[in-house]
Write a structure and sequence with these properties.
Elements: E1 3-5, E2 15-18, H1 20-29, E3 37-42, E4 45-54, E5 58-65, E6 75-81, H2 87-97, E7 102-107, H3 117-137, E8 145-146, E9 150-151, H4 152-159, E10 164-168, H5 170-173, H6 181-186, E11 193-198, H7 206-214, E12 218-220, H8 232-244
Parallel strand pairs: 1-3, 6-7, 6-11, 7-8, 7-9, 10-11, 10-12
Antiparallel strand pairs: 2-5, 3-4, 4-5
Helix pairs in contact: 2-3
């Protein structure tokens, strides 16, 4: 059954209005009409809902709550050094399917791509749309927040608000006594919010490594193989899902 996210608080009469592209999708693409049902998600809960009217906007009545736990037990934010091309679109879509809580793009020292301020807002809006569509497709009750692009300094400042900060560092993969990601996950059972930092194609610079170590971030290997920028976050989320779900 098709799922739609609706912003705002649930009214007392439990009747809400779906507008914009979602309303158009319901009426024109799905060709649903009065009396048909869909799943409406509000305030982190999914509701079996019935369509009351389907004109320009769609009015639905929220029914019973769908009692299915679909969200990751840990709130995992992925911080990505800006990658080339459309890799961030892929990361956003697939990481949303795998349970990511939020995405924080940042301008790393070795990022080849530079977002100019005039275009970054539109790019974030597009990524937010990608996240919403992926959340609907994967039957989630939370749409990951796509943060505006951060400088590395801003990333360090935000990192202090998380229960744990993990850095995926390829140099760890080359060490014979590398710290296994699975072992690090065992230490997160009493943690709620986790920030995982991934570098761009060129990796994290020595200066960035030193700065992350100064805030006591945990450096980890994601295995003996070097993963691509767009693969590493998906590997990490899959491992977290395996450990905690």
């Amino acid at each position: 059954m098709q799922r739609y996210f609706i912003k705002g608080e649930i009214p007392e009469n439990r009747i809400v209005t779906i507008t914009g592209d979602d309303a158009k999708h319901i009426a024109k693409v799905m060709r649903q009409k009065v009396g048909d049902c869909l799943v409406a998600v509000m305030e982190g809960e999914a509701y079996f809902s019935k369509i009351l009217s389907a004109d320009f906007d769609v009015e639905v009545e929220l029914g019973e709550t769908l009692q299915v736990q679909v969200e990751m037990p840990k709130r995992v934010t992925i911080a990505c050094g800006l990658p080339k091309g459309d890799k961030l679109d892929l990361i956003t879509q697939k990481a949303t399917e795998l349970g990511m809580y939020a995405l924080m793009p940042f301008s790393a020292e070795r990022s080849i791509v530079k977002w100019d301020n005039s275009k970054s807002e539109k790019k974030v809006e597009r990524l937010q749309k990608v996240a919403k569509e992926a959340a609907e497709q994967s039957h989630r009750t939370h749409v990951p927040q796509i943060h505006r692009i951060h400088s590395f300094k801003q990333l360090l400042s935000k990192a202090e608000s998380y229960d744990a900060v993990i850095v995926a560092y390829e140099e760890e993969a080359r060490q014979g006594d590398r710290k296994r990601f699975a072992e690090i996950l065992k230490s997160l059972y009493d943690k709620d919010s986790v920030l995982i930092v991934f570098g761009p194609e060129g990796g994290i610079s020595e200066a960035e490594v030193a700065a992350l170590k100064s805030i006591r971030a945990i450096f980890a290997s994601l295995g003996p193989r070097i993963l691509r920028t767009e693969t590493a976050p998906l590997y990490a989320l899959a491992a977290i899902s395996y450990e905690f779900e």
